[in-house]
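Working notes for the structural subgroup meeting. M.R. asked for a predicted model of this chain before we commit to crystallization trials. I am recording the input and output together here so anyone reviewing the notebook later can reproduce the run.

Input as submitted:
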Amino acid sequence: MAAKAVRQGEAHKLIADMPVERLREATNGQLRINALTSAGLSNVQQVLDQGARILALPGVGETTGTRMLGAARSIWQTTIDEMPVRIDIKNRSAATTDLLRALRAWDSARSIKSGTSVLAAAESLRPVLTSLDRETSHVVVIPGTRSVEDLYAAISGLDRGTSLLSGGGGDLGNGDPWDDFLSRPADYYAMLSELGFLSDDEDKSRGDLSAEIVEAVRALKLETAHLKASLRGYQSFGARFAIVQRKVILGDEMGLGKTVESLAVLTHLRTKGSHHFLVVCPAAVVTNWVREVGTKSDLRAHRLHGPRRDSSLTSWIRNGGVAVTTYDSLGWLEGQVPDKAKPACLILDEAHYIKNPDAQRTRRSLGLIRRSDRAVLLTGTPLENRIEEFRNLIGYLRPDLTVSATEFSPRQFRKQVAPAYLRRNQEDVLTELPALVEVDEWMPLSASDEKHYRAAVMEGNFMAMRQAALRSGARSEKMQRLLDIVEEAEENERRVLVFSHFRDVLDDVASILPGKVFGPLTGSVPAAKRQAMVDEFSRAPHGAVLVAQIVAGGVGLNIQAASVVVICEPQLKPTTEWQAIARSRRMGQLDSVQVHRLLSEDGVDRRITEILARKSGLFAEFARVSETADSAPEAFDISDAKVAREIVASERERLLS
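Returned structure, recorded in token form:
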């Protein structure tokens, strides 16, 4: 009922803005509406409000009036049927507050019902407790197969469940439900989707899959007893696709929840009797994976990274769960996992890290994939520079697939990889995602900028050329524009992410910006400290700025607190920028996201943007579900060194002439 009230409220707003001309369109032009406009009725809602009184209007009559009302009611019902439930943070209506309260209660009650491990722990202690003498005051419990941490977690979970069931309140009744929604909006939208209040386009959820595979995916019942998160329809489809096809790439655009899709796979397999799972990821996202396993499932996470990795490995082998390690730790892990702990499923996050078949981490990862019955590669950027890289990833998983990079058109290429590759894009499946506003801020070089730039060109220093327009402090045109953007963001109650490839640029930005500045977040910052920095930034007041190296801050972190993104210079790969933007604009973002690219009119920025456009086109043809292109999938490879030589040479010629 709460969702119905919100949906009706949204429908009323839409109908009230709908001109009466829509009634004529709904009857294929057969209905004359002059009598309505003459009576001062300008929108469909006013017609509905009039009801039977329409029949008495001059020039209407019973037949025409009945048709008018029928058309208006038909439009109303269609609007209701197709209206997704939206949560407007700027209009906290009583109906929406009731809906959030109901969703929170449902989520809490469901967590009790699904707490099988907690109930098992309670049952295992029951015989001991019932046999105790009444005068016993203390009991010491020594875990056998369970760890002490597991026992404490079970007791804590049992306490929370008992409080909820006994009417003690807990999360069900206390506090403002809007606070809980704002802290985890993606979870609420997932619950709305699970309950059928958000519509999914099934055709867009299935990508380029064949009808045979789609039917097999639909036939699979996904077991979610060990999953503590709701799934969107497309996420459930992705998890079932991975289970049915066994070894796949989930290439969903960043921000669509590939992590929870993977956890749905692991929890399904746990229900079927499997115990050991392995996640391999960059060091920067180990902490995030450990968090997600703990909050989104009742599986236990083991951090096989850092000073305690040996004891964690022992615990994982003995007790099972999800081991989380890094690509660089695979050498240490080799030979230490006995057959009894062989992972039932392998997850490789940011899988474009293994696109080079000659790299040592790729060879070690490939060994794991070949020894595993199931493997899921996660990447929002399967194709960065060359078609060959994409084909390598497919070949690791399915060497039986014949995939050519030179003979077939892009559409044929996508059909060939479809048995092992599924991608969905944000605009296709997230109907509630706020707008993305991208602005290319072209500006001239200041006199100081020009001096830095000329010196870099004469030295043949490509990296210095890219930084030149931001190395003059307040005398830099880009820096002045950045100051304006941050000031405007504070006035509009927004937080700002500033990305650059260069540490020196970030230091300059951090030193000159007013207000609260966090960072620089760089590759040298330990993973745990990165997450702590993001958490502190998320709690900071509006106008706060987080400055981050784009190759570090653009991978693995969720920074939804920011809704203004500034990229200080164009990158050499379009996927680098896409990743950075997706840190903020992802499922659960409530504000529109503004992206400002700071670009110099003269020099290196213009040349790099031209290269970016060519690479973006390549990605769209082969890795993104898009319209068919006529060109053949020829390998397109332009290395950073080649880019640098070409641009330096052309800029020398331009400046010297």
